[in-house]
């Protein structure tokens, strides 16, 4: 076993970059610690501008051949990657749980199977991708998707492999080459993905994985003149920096950013369903960008809703995410825990009341929290906490519900609980959000557009929208009788 290989719950993981089909070490490393107990998992190669340049060069060199590869062959390789993921679901699940603290049972049953599905979906979508040809005054128009070139994909720590493959799969399907930069707090499964892709026959340089700390390597990637697309999921401040870095080259961006999403509960809703939806927002210890962290409840049912919510939320078990009985695991990093606790302490000092929670547990665990008595302009209502912290406000009528729901700088998602389909249509039509769920939550079909409004993002990915982003669309216009040989 290489000196650069660590063992995570019996699974060997290479800690080096994957560049041009080879493992590349850096002179320096950074520590990767498990949020479960704070213990060191290993030391990961800490990339710099040198590794960034090498990865982009490898992607650039591999691009012409991959772009020229037939759709059928690209699809075949993506299906082979999906096969590799499915063979290693247990390994991927335990490594990711150890690395980011999310529930092992969720990784086994939902997340890792979804990773495989990401590759299969875009492989199949590629084969059916077409724009209907049309005529203009007898001229034939044909729209095609041309591969754009090397893409830099920067992904977050809360669902590392699933969110990475939401980007990697369509980029590869489109005929682009990829430089993937995973989050430094959860870098391990990206390394395993490189192994799986290589075993599936993906040519060297088509997928490159570089590890590193934030801007140390990120700026070199996003400002590189050979990069043709940048897709980022993460915070607004980081997105602003990426946009500034990409501006010099006018590199197209897709940005999926933060959220402060509402859950609107009307008096005509099934209250048990509404409570279930609300408690579900504690999933992944509240570290979900789509989470409806602002509960907006009609005044007439607010008391009963709160009673049922407290009863159900208080029954959640918080603990080791490897335990099948655990409902809520740890937060990712001590710095994130401090951020969460700071938000809550400031809110309580400003007059908010913690109905449940409101305090830290042992280690990197934060108690599921519900805060009431909060004003619309309060920090806790306006800023993304990214932890197991919800607020509850009441409203008198539809107009106030919509006003409160839209009363932030964000617009990623919204959830509506109502028993009236006409009300659902009226309200959803007024909500500012990239995705709206009615009487459900977190149901996402990959063929649907995904992204945010306002500060929650720029652009949409999913289905054909992904290919529109990762490709240069070309319209070829041919004159009538254009084949006459006058020679």
Can you tell me about this structure?
The protein is of the alpha/beta class and 487 residues long. Helix content is 39%, strand content 22%. The protein is built from 15 helices and 24 strands. The protein has a 7-stranded mixed β-sheet, with helices on both faces. A 6-stranded mixed β-sheet has the order 11-10-9-12-13-23, sandwiched between helices. A 3-stranded antiparallel β-sheet has the order 7-8-24. Strand 10, helix 6 and strand 11 form a beta-alpha-beta unit. It is globular. The termini are far apart. The model has no long low-confidence stretch (mean pLDDT 96).
- Number of strand segments: 24
| Cross-sheet strand order for the largest sheet | 16-17-18-15-14-20-21
Pick out the low-confidence regions: none
Tell me, briefly, the overall form. globular
Radius of gyration, in angstroms, nearest whole number: 24 Å
Summing up helix and strand content along with how strands pair, one would put the structural category as: alpha/beta
Please give the alpha-carbon distance between the first and last residues. Answer: 68 Å
Beta-strand proportion: 15-25%
Main beta sheet strand tally, sense and closure: 7 strands, mixed
């Amino acid at each position: 076993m290489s000196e650069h290989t660590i063992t995570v719950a019996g699974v060997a993981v290479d800690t080096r970059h994957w560049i041009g089909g080879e493992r590349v070490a850096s002179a320096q490393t950074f520590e990767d610690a498990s949020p479960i107990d704070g213990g060191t998992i290993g030391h990961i190669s800490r990339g710099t501008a040198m590794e960034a340049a090498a990865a982009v060069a490898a992607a650039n060199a591999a691009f012409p051949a991959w772009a020229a590869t037939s759709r059928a062959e690209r699809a075949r390789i993506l299906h082979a990657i999906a096969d590799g993921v499915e063979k290693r679901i247990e390994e991927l699940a335990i490594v990711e749980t150890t690395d980011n603290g999310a529930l092992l049972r969720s990784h086994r049953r939902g997340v890792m199977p979804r990773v495989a599905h990401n590759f299969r979906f875009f492989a199949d979508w590629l084969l059916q991708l077409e724009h209907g040809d049309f005529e203009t005054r007898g001229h034939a128009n044909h729209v095609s998707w041309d591969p754009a070139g090397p893409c830099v994909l920067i992904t977050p720590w809360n669902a590392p492999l699933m969110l990475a493959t939401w980007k990697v799969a369509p980029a590869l399907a489109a005929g682009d080459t990829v430089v993937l930069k995973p989050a430094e707090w959860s870098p391990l499964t990206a390394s395993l993905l490189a192994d799986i892709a290589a075993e599936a026959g993906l040519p060297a340089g088509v997928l490159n994985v570089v590890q590193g700390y934030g801007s140390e390597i990120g700026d070199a990637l996003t400002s590189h003149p050979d990069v043709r697309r940048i897709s980022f999921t993460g915070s607004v401040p980081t997105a602003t920096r990426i946009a500034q870095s990409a501006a010099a080259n006018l590199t197209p961006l897709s940005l999926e950013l933060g959220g402060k999403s509402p859950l609107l509960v009307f008096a005509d809703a099934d209250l048990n369903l509404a409570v279930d939806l609300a408690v579900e927002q504690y999933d992944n210890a509240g570290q979900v960008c789509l989470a409806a962290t602002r509960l907006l409840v009609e005044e007439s049912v607010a008391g009963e809703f709160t009673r049922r919510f407290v009863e159900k939320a208080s029954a959640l078990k918080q603990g080791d995410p490897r335990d099948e009985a655990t409902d809520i695991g740890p937060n990712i990093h001590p710095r994130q825990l401090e951020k969460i606790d700071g938000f809550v302490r400031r809110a309580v000092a400003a007059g908010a009341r913690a109905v449940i929670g409101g305090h830290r547990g042992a280690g990197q665990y934060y108690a599921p929290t519900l805060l009431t008595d909060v004003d619309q302009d309060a920090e806790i209502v306006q800023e993304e906490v990214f932890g197991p912290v919800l607020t509850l406000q009441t409203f008198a009528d539809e107009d106030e519900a919509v006003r409160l729901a839209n009363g932030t700088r964000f617009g990623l998602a919204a959830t509506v609980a109502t028993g009236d389909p006409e009300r659902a249509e009226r309200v959803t039509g007024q909500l500012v959000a990239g995705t709206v769920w009615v009487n459900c939550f977190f149901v996402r079909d990959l063929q649907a557009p995904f992204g945010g409004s306002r500060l929650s993002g720029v652009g949409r990915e999913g289905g054909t929208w992904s290919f529109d982003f990762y490709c240069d669309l070309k319209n070829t216009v041919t004159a009538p009788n254009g084949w006459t040989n006058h020679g």
